[in-house]
Design goal:
The complex is a heterodimer of chains A (162) and B (765). In chain A, strand 3 and strand 4 form a beta hairpin. Chain A is built from 5 helices and 5 strands. The radius of gyration of chain A is 16 Å and the shape is globular. In chain A, helix 2 packs across helix 5. Chain A is 36% helix and 15% strand. With 765 residues, chain B is an alpha+beta fold. Chain B has 19 helices and 28 strands. The chains are: A alpha+beta (162), B alpha+beta (765). Chains A and B meet through helix 2, helix 3, helix 4 and helix 5 of A and helix 1 and helix 17 of B.
């Protein structure tokens, strides 16, 4: 039996009727038309469905939509602020870390969660930290470089802000 | 090196912002009004006759709008080319692998579609099945296809020179063999297709990830018996191909048929399970090689046999069985060469090509080279350089090598990796190895090897370029705009690309055999040059200066002698219209010399240019082997490859690093496993283990750029040879580390430990 839920996604509140067994991924994509999060495997093996829930990286294919009520959900569509790319997005673009782009939304959010937790990671920490997100096109080298560049940019901004 | 404005620069791809903001739409992200969801029912048997299908209960389920089975479809087979059509879009009489599509349903949502599938009753008569080439080729083995004896198709021997005579003249003969496992290409995007049939006009719109929309359209036209002009494949973002999306799949036929029957758009989105089971696999092979060498290290002959597991249908695996020959004859000078390729049908997922088909042959060849060097007391790097093919060489079959740089690649890889300082000198368990590989660009595809392009100008001086070339994610769209921008002297932002749409764009080969840069790039270059010529001729009469004194740059046409004397392009464009003409550039390119050959010639000793041009490269890998657990860790990879002129170094690096990851995965981790009934056990990313970021070290890439005389700006290809030397380098590095040759892949810890045990126990190295 359909349940009425209230989902807060990228700062906006959506009222939507869902079946209790629907995943957050399905609801984001099929009901809210936020197709940035991808259905790469639907079983939590690939990370393409990664979203941030209350700041933590979560696999939306393993999250029930009804359980996501009352939380702050961030998808890739909510990263850029007023036409300006987030430093992580900008670094991905400029460092050549995006090829086919299918893994990119999940990868970018996983990177954000990593940098929010650890603003100055080592190369190895980035490599380990992103190991939940599969990519077949890039071999990860430029992705790791992009995350390190983004961390430098974000650190510099923090310093300027101080 | 010429100074270009945009060619040769690290250009940010035009599609990357869309991808990084989630705005780029892939097939499963598309919605059409009234769209239904389609799902396929799959065979649980590896080989069976279909006796009866009862869909009545499924049809009666509320929410189901259409059900189809093989009974309703025309009895027309499809395949990559005319000669190799062996598959029905929905199984009609027989199923030949577990997972083959047998029926399909379109419903208002996926849940109902799944439920409907469970209500379809199929009666099968199970048949005996075969799961490996050896069993499949035995006398009396179950036959998969009526027209194919002993399940062998194709088989051929290519022989140039006289291998047996040469062997007689050699001082030593080396023989060895490698074998590997079937794997998936592993595109991150699960397969999907969207079809929208309009019964009023009889036209069908299609979206699906593909390597050539024209190949797909033709196949649909043949099987659905609809004219080509009534079918349109739209351009769509896609999540990687790697050679695995070369032919049409049942998914799009199913979507089309369901749409025709239900009169609604239908989207079929495969799950990851279905994508791993039912699209294509990269074939497994057994390669055996005999190499004849003289005491001084001169290699006189190679005799090679490659047996390939083709799966249940041909796809491009017939060609795959012979692509390794292209590498064998091209990489090292070889006056006498014999190659036998055999492909066998088996009751498993159909196989299709993946990037460098010669991956396993390269491993074997490089392993034998190391063995020869070791036994004869020679430097294996010098041995490679001594035999390396060079620009200007003519290959055994008559192919002319217009540019090659293997020696330079070897020198570079050896220098940056410290190979000489490390080989044989690292701590126990650590090793360094080198491996080389090479590939062709463009092989015979008949008329399909043509790419044509158009350029039209707008009233504000901007332009649109039209190319049938697809972008699988490697950056082809940016590359085409980059080429047009360079020729026309315009910023890339002023150029719009319309690509890969059968209604809007001209013919293109598709991204097979890496023709995107060489063929599609040349077509765009010619079309842009044609437009530029038209602009100059009209401007000539407007400014009153001869055309050859004019230059086109930054949106202006001006005289070379006094640049301030000129007019803006838009003035020329508008003047053209006033005169009753229009600035519309046309370009068309078919590589010379091989267009008359067909696919089948690849399996024979046909003389002539086998590939348009060839690339090559050297890889060095450093590994650490844990002798207690058998785990191999790759510490470092250096790749020095030749791509001709690098149109966009950032894109080139990305391709080589990505391929290195795939080849590393294949060498160390990836393997598909079936149970005794032919069911795929490794049907998830948990079991089919592709490398993660923590598995791949930093891959350093170095671009070697011999300028090809025919490539656009001297460019050749980037994506096929990519990563080709990684497998050989890892295998050789493992030998350097622990003194064992491992000849079956993937190199799992179990295999390493078994090899070490055998070595301890006195087994031969």
């Amino acid at each position: 039996m359909m349940k009425q839920v209230s989902l807060t996604v990228n700062g906006e509140v959506y009222e939507v009727a869902v079946e209790p067994w629907w995943t957050l991924l399905e609801v984001l994509r099929e009901k809210l038309y936020l197709t940035g999060a991808k259905r790469g495997c639907d079983r939590g093996d690939c990370g393409a469905c990664t979203v941030l829930i209350d700041g933590k990286a979560k696999l939306s294919c393993l999250t029930l939509a009804v359980k996501a009520q009352g939380k702050e959900i961030l998808t890739v569509e909510g990263l850029a602020q007023d036409e300006e790319l987030h430093p992580i997005q900008r670094a991905f673009v400029e460092q050549g870390a995006v090829q086919c782009g299918f893994c990119t939304p999940g990868m970018v959010l996983a990177a954000k969660a990593l940098l929010d937790r650890n603003p100055t990671p080592s190369e190895e920490e980035v490599s380990e930290g992103l190991s939940g997100n599969l990519c077949r096109c890039t071999g990860y080298t430029k992705i790791i470089e992009a995350v390190l560049v983004a961390s430098e940019t974000m650190e510099r901004r923090q310093e300027t802000a101080r | 090196m010429k100074d270009y404005s945009v060619i040769g620069k690290r250009v940010v791809g035009i599609d990357k912002i869309k991808k990084v903001t989630g705005a780029a739409k892939f097939t499963a992200d598309l919605f059409l009004p009234g769209m239904l969801h389609g799902k396929a029912l799959r065979s649980p048997h590896a080989h069976a006759r279909i006796v009866n299908i009862d869909t009545s209960q499924a049809e009666g389920l509320p929410g189901v709008r259409a059900v189809i089975t093989g009974r309703e479809i025309p009895r027309v087979k499809f395949g990559l080319t005319k000669d190799i059509r062996d598959q029905y879009l929905l199984a009609i009489d027989k199923v030949r692998y577990v997972g083959e599509e047998v029926a399909a349903v379109a419903a208002i949502d996926e849940d109902i579609a799944e439920e409907a599938l469970s209500l379809i009753k199929v009666e099968y008569e199970e048949l005996p099945a075969v799961f490996d080439p050896e069993s499949a080729m035995k006398e009396g083995a179950p036959q998969l296809h009526d027209h194919v004896e002993r399940n062998i198709s194709p088989q051929g021997v290519i022989h140039f020179g006289d291998v047996d005579k040469a062997f007689a003249e050699c001082d030593y003969i080396y023989e060895d063999r490698v074998a590997d496992a079937k794997v998936s290409h592993g595109q991150m995007e699960p397969y999907a297709a969207l079809a929208a049939y309009d019964s009023a006009s009889g036209s069908l719109d299609m979206w699906a990830p593909n390597q050539s929309p024209f190949t797909r359209r033709r196949a649909l036209s043949n099987v659905l018996q609809m004219p080509v002009v009534k079918i349109r494949y739209h351009n769509v973002h896609m999540g990687g191909a790697f050679g695995g999306l070369s032919d049409p799949f049942p998914a799009e036929f199913i979507a089309a048929l369901l749409s025709i029957k239900s009169k609604r758009p239908v989207r079929v989105a495969y799950s990851r399970e279905e994508t791993l089971i039912a699209i294509r696999h990269w074939p497994s092979v057994v390669v055996e090689m005999k190499v004849g060498v003289k005491r001084d290290g001169t290699i006189l002959a190679k005799d090679c046999k490659l047996t390939l597991d083709g799966g249940a249908y041909m796809s491009s695996s017939g060609l795959a069985a012979f692509q390794s020959y292209m590498h064998l004859e091209a990489l090292y000078r070889l006056p006498n060469v014999r190659y036998e390729g055999i492909r066998a049908y088996t009751n498993k997922t159909p196989s299709s090509m993946h990037r460098l088909q010669a991956y396993q042959l390269a491993i074997l060849e490089e392993m034998i080279l190391e063995r020869i060097a070791q036994d004869l007391g020679l430097d294996s790097v010098e041995l490679r350089k001594q035999h390396a093919t060079q620009t200007g060489d003519i290959l055994p079959g008559g192919t002319h090598i217009t540019s090659f740089a293997l020696r330079e690649c070897i020198d570079k890889a050896v220098a940056v990796s410290g190979w000489r300082e490390k080989k044989g000198k690292l701590l126990p368990g650590r090793g360094i190895g080198i491996g080389c590989s090479g590939s062709y660009t463009g092989f015979a595809m008949g008329f399909r090897l043509n790419s044509s392009a158009l350029v039209k100008f707008n009233e504000d001086g901007s332009c649109s370029v039209f190319s049938g070339c697809m972008d699988n994610g490697q950056g082809n769209e940016s590359m085409l705009i980059q080429i047009a921008a360079e020729v026309l002297g315009m910023p890339m932002e002023n150029i719009e690309l319309i690509a890969g749409d059968t209604a809007l764009t001209p013919q293109d080969p598709g991204t097979y055999s890496m023709t995107a840069a060489f063929v599609s790039g040349n077509a765009i270059r010619l079309a842009a040059a044609d437009a530029k010529q038209q602009i100059m001729e009209i401007a000539m009469s407007m400014i009153g200066v001869p055309a050859n004194d004019l230059e086109v740059k930054e949106g202006r046409v001006f005289t070379k002698s006094s640049p301030e004397k000129g007019i803006r392009i838009e003035s020329v464009v508008r003047e053209a219209w006033r005169r009753g003409t229009a600035v519309q550039g046309r370009g068309s390119y078919t590589p010379p010399a091989i267009s008359e050959h067909g696919w089948a010639d690849q399996t024979t000793a046909t003389r002539g240019q086998r590939g348009i041009t060839y690339t090559d490269g050297a890889t060095v890998a450093e590994v650490e082997v844990d002798q207690e657990t058998g785990v191999v860790k790759v510490l470092n990879v250096w790749q020095a490859y030749d791509c001709g002129f690098a149109l966009n170094p950032m894109a080139v690096e990305g391709q080589w690093q990505g391929a290195a990851g795939q080849m590393l995965g294949r060498t160390l981790f990836e393997k598909h496993t079936w149970d005794e009934k032919g069911r795929l056990i490794t049907d998830s990313f948990l079991d089919f283990r592709m490398p993660r970021s923590s598995d791949i070290p930093k891959v350093s890439t170095f671009i070697v750029e011999p300028i090809d005389p025919r490539g656009p700006f001297g460019a050749k290809e980037v994506g096929i040879n990519a990563g080709g030397g990684v497998g050989p380098a890892i295998v050789n590095a493992i030998h350097d580390a622990i003194g064992v040759w491992i000849k079956e892949f993937p190199i799992t810890p179990e295999k390493v430990l078994a090899a070490l045990e055998e070595k301890e126990g006195g087994g031969l190295i």
